[in-house]
Amino acid sequence: MQFEGVNNEIVKLAQSITDEQKQEMHSLQNIEPYEIVNASYEADANFLKEEGYLTHLIGILTTENQVSDLLEKVPVEAGTWAIFPNEGSFPATLQETMAKIYSEWLPSSNYEVINAPSFSFTKMDEHKKDYAYSEVWIPVRQK
Hints:
Blueprint: H1 8-15, H2 19-28, E1 37-41, E2 55-59, E3 80-89, H3 92-108, E4 111-113, E5 118-124, E6 131-142
Antiparallel strand pairs: 1-2, 1-5, 3-6, 4-6, 5-6
């Protein structure tokens, strides 16, 4: 997992999404947040040290079951997510927020991360260069 700078693998993934896939994603989108999300799951124990691996997808959240072969569907059970809004220089503010979730908030909270996808979305500010509003959603349960 890369915590600093632009992650070129995610950029390549985003650029690989076809217009047909985008159209289908937008038609299926029906639950919050109503945004295109970056979802990560199946992380190994070393991903926080930037040495491990995880599965990363770009998509939407939906309750629809009928999805074409153009898209991959990852079923996720209903649960609780801790939501961390952040705003500032992009991608630095988002990456700092991610790091602080795991290094500061999680150890001092009454929550633990569960085995489900975490996700984030980012809305770039069209009036400010490299400035964005983001939210990080982490799947949790009370200890």
